[in-house]
Amino acid sequence: MDIKLEIWLQGLGAGRAMRFRLGSCSMVPTLQMDDLVTVAPGCRCRLGDIALFQRDQDLLLHRVVARWGGWIVTKGDGLAWLDVPVPRHAVLGTAVLRERRGRVRRLDRLGARFLGLSCCLTSACVPKLMKILSALKRLGEQSWAWLSNRNENCISSWLLKIWPGS
């Protein structure tokens, strides 16, 4: 087992809050690369909480988006896919503070959880929205070309009626 992982597991297991510098972009915009995050031990696993759990030899810090029975489903705010369900007992802690450029923000309050959950669920729709917007843009360009050609013909015929010599 990795020594860092072992230290983390011992610290959280002893009931101590742990701090670390984030090394991933999966939680953008809520958490960014190099943010200093404080994780408190234990987890109530409320919707919108940012849970720390172990997957293989990695520690993941992702938002809780669903729960049922003894399982939770998590997702990185900046990712378009859901994680594999995790047993609740595998959750090691919850992110409670984020420090960025000297400014500290609480992550465990209702407002922060709601805003983060909204962002997280919206990011799942982004790839589909981009396809729709791209299709609408193409349709709009085709419609605009058709309308402008039609309008030019209409304006030209109207001008010929008013000024036959033009």
Q: Can you characterise this structure?
A:
By secondary structure, the chain is α+β, with helices and mostly antiparallel strands. 39% of the residues lie in helices and 29% in strands. It has one domain (3-124): Ribbon (Umud Fragment, subunit A), CATH 2.10.109.10. Strands 1, 2, 3, 4, 5, 6, 7 and 8 form an eight-stranded antiparallel beta sheet that branches. The longest helix is centred in the C-terminal third of the chain and has 53 residues, at 110-162. The termini are far apart. 20% of the residues are buried.
Relevant terms:
8 strands, alpha+beta, elongated, 166 residues
Tally of helical segments: 2
How many separate domains make up the residues?
1
Report, as a whole number of angstroms, the end-to-end distance.
86 Å
Question: What structural category do the secondary elements indicate?
Answer: alpha+beta
Reported CATH architecture: Ribbon
Q: Choose one word for the global shape.
A: elongated
In terms of topology, how is this protein built?
Blueprint: H1 3-13, E1 18-21, E2 36-41, E3 50-55, E4 58-68, E5 71-75, E6 86-87, E7 91-100, E8 103-106, H2 110-162
Antiparallel strand pairs: 1-2, 2-7, 3-4, 3-7, 4-5, 5-6, 7-8
